[in-house]
Amino acid sequence: MAITEYDAAWYYEPAQAPRHPVWTQLAFCLPASIRRPATPTGTYRLQTDGRYHAPDWARAQRPAAIMDDGQICPPAVRGQMALFPAPYRLQEHHAVLLRGRFQGDLERLKPLVNEVQAEHRLSRTWRVSAVDALTLALAARDAAGQDLVDAAILDALPHQHSGVTAVLNRAGLLAPGLDHGVAVLPHAQRARSQPQPRSCDHCLSWGRNQVCNACRHWRRKYADQQGRCRRCGAGPLPLQNGRCRDCTSLRLRMGPDTEASTWRQLRFAGSSLPAGVSASCPEVHRADRLVLAPPAVQHAGQLTLFDADRDWRPLVNALLPSPPPSVMAILADFASYTTEHRWSQQSHESTARVLRVAATWLGADTTFREDDLRALNRARPSRGGRIGGLVAFLNQREQLLASPPRRNRNEAFVQRTIAAFPPRIGDELGTWVRVLRGATRSHHLATDYGTIRRYLVYLATPLADWTSCYTTLRQVTTADVTTAVTAVKGPRAHERAVALRSLFRALKHAKLVFADPTRGLHVTRRELLPATLAPDRLAGLLDVSTNPANRLVLALAALHATNGTDLRNLTLSDVLLTRRQLLIRRPHGRHVVHLDDTTTALLHAWLRHRHRRWPRTANPHLLITQQTASTTDPVCTDYIYKRFTPAGVTLRAVRADRILDEARETEDPVHLVRVFGLSVTTAMKYIHTAHPHRGGPVPR
Length: 700
Known about the structure:
- The protein is elongated.
- 26% of the residues are buried.
- Helix 15 runs parallel beside helix 17 (449-458) and helix 27 crosses helix 28 (680-690).
- By secondary structure, it is mostly helical.
- It is built from 28 helices and eleven strands.
- A three-stranded antiparallel beta sheet has the order 9-10-11.
- It is 42% helix and 4% strand.
- A hairpin with a 6-residue loop joins strand 3 and strand 4 (206-207).
């Protein structure tokens, strides 16, 4: 009764009415014989004109319309420059609150509006919206303290009316520099404006609607379960089992482990659930393993927001979906590649799975990151594939983004150790490292970081003592060096002396110290002479293995005293078959090895086996393995040394025995230098061992 008789708030603001104090009129309880005429109830009543109107008593209580709201676009001082430009937020209902402010201006502009309307045959609806747009444009102009309407105001209008530009142009209210020749087309010929991209309010996916289609269907299905998601905390949203649609989708994709985190996957608007999986089922299991569905593939030309390391561990026990045709094509090409390079079936299957997962997840036409492939391979450690071959295959197809060169672990240790010292001493140690690396010396061979690391280990104790009492290495004296060297005995004293001599000679060369405190420092040590092997340990050395590569390595070491570094770096261009020679390239020069009949036969056998086993390899090195056949890298160091393990000997022992045997046949060190490419000092050491009567100082 109150609503139908005197409570006008329920007619004009039903949502706000309960917030105000509610009172009702006290009335008499009438007998049943007296009937009150029935009055229709409802917010509005349908009248004879076909429209809903409020009753007379409600219209009498209607509040006066606001003709000029001073809080919307308050006028500013004309000509005053703004401290910083602020964005306009003009909406349609603002025009209703500003009509009283521009009555005179609108009266002068209405004839121009009528001209544009008649000229382009526009509707009455356009005329009403154009007047509202002109009101907003004038209010924004006054709020900016300007005399004319600029482009920023036109872009901020809630509806882009091309006719508004024409009206302002005819009235002379447009700022100079704007395009005044805007065509005003009839409504039927006007092109619809494209919706602006935005994110979904529910799942945050990037699309063109306030709520994407998938979330709209989800909201219809679970409209009665509103609240905050127990996983991500977003809300209020429609929930299923306490989770929003986004978290339910992530659980279906990644498994129950995602419950412990709160992150949400950003994506484009569209269905994010696996194909054929209903959102109503909380989990999908098949043989206790989650079925992996491919996500949206990154399209060509799409930029990456930021690079991030992917976590491939959920794919360890995942069942892959049926690959699309593009993935099938790249897998077929990879199968042909592995067949040409004589891969085993097990190696092909394990590596093909890595390629299949990466191509299904990232797209078969994308550029694969080498770090992603190696991380995906490490996710299955017991069944890891040959990633080196896969990297070579993708590089051949120009679909590989190679990893940046990794810093040597010895280099990292050196830099980390030097950074722990005080700044001044650390700078001096850094100069020492640069000198050893050849940065300040002409025609100087760079010292390996492994050697510098050993020097730092030898100098750990002296540097720690000097750092506690000195601020620079210039303060180190000869007595300090002598104390540091004599503090240890035996080989350690010699190692520390060598490291100290290297440090202060480099600082002297860089002119960071005035005098070298290690000058005149001499430490005696016991020289370990090379030893010969027993004849029975070398007997039948070539019969230990039937592998052509093993037999060639054993022959080159036992007959020609070739070291491991030379064997790893040998290339096919270094093999001179017509001359029966091997060219060994070393940093300080070249050495030619003249091959005998046995070594020549073993070399031919290995080359035939190499060509038959890997006919399409592009590796230029003489010795290759199944891991390096698809790359251009040399074999690892352990490969050379492990060839001697079945025979029970070492490469160093076999090589020393061969040089010592040759030294027994001659007393000429020049002969050893020419045959084995040794230095004079090393050759004299073998001569003194084979002929003790020729002992004496080694000539320099």
